[in-house]
Amino acid sequence: MHVLIAQSDINLGRLWKQHLERLRAQVTLVQTGELAISALEDQVFDVIVLDLVLQEGGALAVADVASYRQPKANVVFVTNTSFFSDGSIFNHSPNARAFIESTTSPTDLAAIVEHYGQPSPENAAH
User: Domain 2-124 falls in which CATH fold?
Assistant: First the structure.
């Protein structure tokens, strides 16, 4: 499982990365939207953990690039705001699979990412 984490708070990003690496995930950690888009152009990801409010660059722009370049990559949005708390994020991002608070325990986040990082039955048969 290859995971991209786009999180402006480097300490939080590192914490998530450590938990995912315990599950044997290969993790790329970036802090800006620009670096996330660059990573999407160079690597293939199964799951993208995307902070909705990146300090530099728009998360929705990253999600748009991901849906175009890597439509099979599942996006797990995290946030510490009330933006899209009505669930409308799923209308804006076709590959959005989860929308959770950034205060979610790293163990729970890792379990969510692991779930969405598994190959779907139709992809596993090929």
Answer: Rossmann fold (3.40.50)
